Automatic annotation (TrEMBL):
The species this protein was found in: Parathalassolituus penaei
Sequence segments annotated as region (Disordered): 1-30
Keyword Endoplasmic reticulum: no
Keywords noted in UniProt: Cytoplasm, Translation regulation
One annotated GO biological process: regulation of translation
Composition skew (Basic and acidic residues), residue ranges: 1-13, 20-29
Pfam families referenced in this protein's UniProt entry, alphabetically: RMF (PF04957)
Protein name stated in the entry: Ribosome modulation factor
Domain of life from the UniProt record: Bacteria
Keyword DNA repair among record annotations: no
Amino acid sequence: MKKQKRDLQERAYSRGYRAGVEHRSKDLAPPEGPLRDAWLAGWRSGRADHWDGYIGVSGIHRLAV
């Protein structure tokens, strides 16, 4: 099994980050729980990077760092 499928919180963070960079609503977060917290943390980071000009491909590359 791939690591990506095992680490659900990291996966939720990256999905939240992509949603934040794409200027999507935080209402798309999963229901209450630790995955929601990870998703919202990623969303906040994505929004901050979007405001700093990391949009499109450069924002996705920033996630890998």
